Amino acid sequence: MNQPIGVIDSGVGGLTVAREIMRQLPKEKIVYLGDNQRCPYGPRPVEEVRQYTWQMIHYLREHHSIKMLVIACNTATAAAYEQIKRALDIPVIGVIRPGARSALKVSRSLHIGVIGTIGTIKSEAYQQALLDINNEVIVSSLACPEFVPLVESNNLSSLETYKTITKRLNELHGDENMDTLILGCTHYPMLRPQIQKAMGSRIKLIDSGEETALEVSTVLYHKNLAREESSQPIHHFYTTGSAQMMETIGEQLLGYRPDVKTVRIDQD
Amino acid sequence: MNQPIGVIDSGVGGLTVAREIMRQLPKEKIVYLGDNQRCPYGPRPVEEVRQYTWQMIHYLREHHSIKMLVIACNTATAAAYEQIKRALDIPVIGVIRPGARSALKVSRSLHIGVIGTIGTIKSEAYQQALLDINNEVIVSSLACPEFVPLVESNNLSSLETYKTITKRLNELHGDENMDTLILGCTHYPMLRPQIQKAMGSRIKLIDSGEETALEVSTVLYHKNLAREESSQPIHHFYTTGSAQMMETIGEQLLGYRPDVKTVRIDQD
């Protein structure tokens, strides 16, 4: 199965998922598409998020024969995962279920926090995924609409950023029994040190990217789709926005400067 | 999908996997069978392990309609997993791949240790599973034949036990770059505190049971096999050996005293 894995995201956040797939599955090839031009998806109506997500999928499948689709965006997963999974003939992995499953592995108090975009939190997708598996879970959810713009503007380590994060996360501090916090947005791992500091070391953070890559590994194996060729995989990166911006953030995240092409996907 | 998940093991070690399935997937029903009479499998020839494992599977499938099989024994997984996976029409989960995948998620140095029975270590099944995914991994393997008898004799927390463990694990101490150790036997989580102490807090331990239960969760979901009934699940426990012994160890592990029945499985 020499075809690539397609990874789509509203912008650069999904690069944290792509990075984890490269790290955990170094033989696999990736085709990445970020819809930076219309990022963030978080505040948009569900129908619009669905439409944009389908445009990304159509673009990828027209230009590449992908063996699996990873929706590396929590907002898009919350809005469209079930629909897409039913419609496609290849395995589809979202970022919500892997994060929920892993939180249930890690949490002992069964009081689990979730932070995400307005769209993700409003959808209650995490809550539903957690309760589907264990109906004794208590979930504390918090929308953090300031966080994605901080990442997309590449403003990660300033004091201003830390202050914004701390102020928002203070709203979760009443929940003393909480022992696990799901980073319910693929941008948030880029703010992980600041989030860990703000929450305290007692709280275990669940990184969607790490857990999604693990699920990709499991599903590739059980569907007999793992790549067997041993040649070095070549990845491809596309954005609907600034190629240079994705190259800069990509370089910080991936350890090499990816070659990014700008494409149009809204012509259908 | 109201059918139970079948869990088989050479003895009581697989109860750590069953416990994790109950914890992470509290809606699922389990049928457990431990071949205590012929435990340990570790030192036995591969062909014999295969034969005994098939006898357990035949017994379970004759008496219960299971929707998934979990081989909760590293020795049996190493000896027979591929064969069983090909032969059965239900999903089959072993304990080796989940542990290997999780180690690759956790390790940063890519130098990974594996401890297990003589059979598991001799099979090189972990090494193969790790290298299948990432051929830059360095694996240090060590057989610990004394560990299973310590657990099966319910002799967990004595000073003698700790001394035995430390003495054996000292053999791994030359490998300074190692940052992750796979507990490649489902009995070993019962010795986890002693193993962690002997290895030092720097080493991340991978518990086959936790990771296998996570993989059960993922595969149930992607194969549409999760249980949907909300009634409290009732589990069943069988052993080929002493029911009382499994009840005693089960009580320590599961938090309640299971009702265990002794059965014969070698009549075919």
Automatic annotation (TrEMBL), chains A, B:
Q: Where are the transmembrane segments?
A: none
Q: Which InterPro entries match?
A: Asp/Glu/hydantoin_racemase, Asp/Glu_race, Asp/Glu_racemase_AS_1, Asp/Glu_racemase_AS_2, Glu_race
Domain of life (superkingdom):
Bacteria
Q: In which pathway does it act?
A: Cell wall biogenesis; peptidoglycan biosynthesis
Q: Which reaction is recorded as catalysed by this protein?
A: L-glutamate = D-glutamate
Active site at C73 (proton donor/acceptor), C185 (proton donor/acceptor)
Q: Keywords for this entry?
A: Cell shape, Cell wall biogenesis/degradation, Isomerase, Peptidoglycan synthesis
State its Enzyme Commission number(s): 5.1.1.3
Q: What class of enzyme is it?
A: isomerase
Indicate which residues the UniProt annotation says bind substrate: D9, S10, Y41, G42, N74, T75, T186, H187
| Function statement | Provides the (R)-glutamate required for cell wall biosynthesis.
Q: What is this protein called?
A: Glutamate racemase
> What lineage, starting at the top, does this entry show?
Bacteria, Bacillati, Bacillota, Bacilli, Bacillales
